[in-house]
Amino acid sequence: MERLFATEKLGGRALYKLHATTLFVGICLVLCYRATHVPAAGRAAWLGMLAAELWFGFYWVITQSARWCPSRRCAFKDRLAARYGERLPCVDIFVCTADPQSEPPSLVMATVLSLMAYNYPPEKLNVYLSDDGGSILTFYALWETSAFAKHWLPFCRRYKIEPRSPAAYFAQSDKPSDPRALEEWSFVKGLYEEMTERIDSAVRSGKVPEQIRVNHKGFSEWNTGANSKDHQPIVQILIDGKDRDAVDNEGNVLPTLVYMAREKRPQYHHNFKAGAMNALIRVSSVISNSPIIMNVDCDMYSNNSDSIREALCFFLDEETGHKIAFVQYPQNYNNMTKNNIYGNSLNVINKVEMGGMDTWGGPLYIGTGCFHRREALCGRTFTKDYKEDWDRGIKTQQGIDLTEEKAKSLATCTYELNTQWGNEIGLKYGCPVEDVITGLAIHCRGWNSVYNDPPRAAFVGVAPTTMAQTILQHKRWSEGCHIKWATPSMVCGHPTRYLLCTMLSSLH
Ligand SMILES: O=c1ccn([C@@H]2O[C@H](COP(=O)(O)OP(=O)(O)O[C@H]3O[C@H](CO)[C@@H](O)[C@H](O)[C@H]3O)[C@@H](O)[C@H]2O)c(=O)[nH]1
Ligand SMILES: [Mn+2]
């Protein structure tokens, strides 16, 4: 049977190998020099130099395993379409946001809209927004979005536009020349701008107007004075994709859209993004329970509406699909500083190293732009005879109120006490780079991963732009992969992979 994807080796490998060989000889010569020139005085400095050279030499040798033979993937969406048509698995999409001041809700909503507008059967798509700020402003923004989506989704489909984040699209696109298209373009643009203005002005004033609050029962969650650090669990299904009446303005079904703010109490540690993701895994398990989970940071919009279909080419491939736990896309940014002075474009990682890690079972999980197999993320160990049920998922709703109550009980502070959540199940806690460690644990359970970097970037986000932000981010990344976060079984189970995780996340 024809494969659903191909792997091709990157060109220029011979040249790189030549370059690497000369470097290796250089490193050996430096070490030789050091060993044969032991000074009589100043031994401490000599020892320090030797230690540094040995460490950097060792680092360099280890990273060669990711640079020696980089490859690129090519997914065949046409073959996927020919084989499966629209009989595709359900997908749950998780977006995490934490603070309406530093992550403006209007931008988060552009991300949410880009995800709702994927070129994918809408009844199989479920978008969840986790709000760690527990903010009525974010909820209000999502409520506005659920109404605007009824215009945005048909517009995207009719004109096959890219990218499908309205903010990015209207900033990039020229006015269409066809008068009918122009009329619609201007109408949708107008609606979008009005909505953004309403959201931004609510954020500026810090409150949602009273006449709006009566429009949805969800606003009443804030009647008791919930604040970001102390509030009850909130789950609101804003669009129920299983409801035949929830349709866009052309009568097509809409994707499910859910707002979640897990319970926060000062006496319980919330475990940052990993805690939010784990709450989402549980909440989604009673609403949609799709076999595939995708997650993005709130500042990373989908730039390519075919990314889901491409990711499925890997999962559904007959030969190797059953081994794959996650498909990782690179992090691309659209706000590079002049000359990329802080190296934020992550070129070496994105273009070479992530695609070069196949020998070690595939790329790292880097926290955003990643499609997971739900079972693997929830702690399942790989076995040859495991067969995924791609048809799984909740197809009929029990009644929204009942489902919401059930979901809230899974998003409480006490739910995880004395359980394996944060350890064997879901994302790992306690580590500043929960993603890399979680990915390592998945590999240690026997699964592989795949890296896919299509010519049209799948996700585009916002990188740090100042020295201070960059240093903070790198400090967190470097600390995160320190040995103390990995258990001995993880280090021993995949020693080279562990070293690579440590080194790739600490020295860029
Ligand atoms: O308590 C928190 C803190 C953060 N976030 C969200 O987590 C995401 C990432 O946080 P950010 O502060 O933007 O970290 P970055 O350094 O930009 O993130 C990179 O590094 C992280 C740690 O490795 C990964 O989790 C991210 O996916 C990756 O983009 C954002 O969407 C936040 O809203 C939460 O949901 N809850
Ligand atoms: Mn970020």
Provide a descriptive summary of the structure in words.
This protein is an alpha/beta fold and 508 residues long. The protein has two domains: 5-73; 91-380 and 396-506, Spore Coat Polysaccharide Biosynthesis Protein SpsA, Chain A (Alpha-Beta Complex). Helices cover 43% and strands 12% of the residues. The chain is built from 17 helices and 13 strands. The protein has helices spanning 13-36, 43-67, 77-84, 105-116, 136-159, 166-172, 179-205, 210-213, 272-287, 307-315, 347-353, 374-377, 400-409, 434-444, 467-480, 488-493, 495-506; strands at residues 5-9, 71-75, 91-97, 125-131, 234-239, 256-261, 292-297, 301-302, 324-328, 332-333, 370-373, 448-451, 459-461. Strands 5-6-4-3-7-11-9-12 form an eight-stranded mixed β-sheet, sandwiched between helices. A three-stranded mixed β-sheet has the order 8-13-10. Helix 2 (43-67) crosses helix 17 (495-506) and helix 9 runs antiparallel to helix 13 (400-409). The longest helix has 27 residues, at 179-205. The structure holds uridine-5'-diphosphate-glucose (UPG) and manganese (II) ion. The site of uridine-5'-diphosphate-glucose has 16 residues, from strand 3 and helix 9.
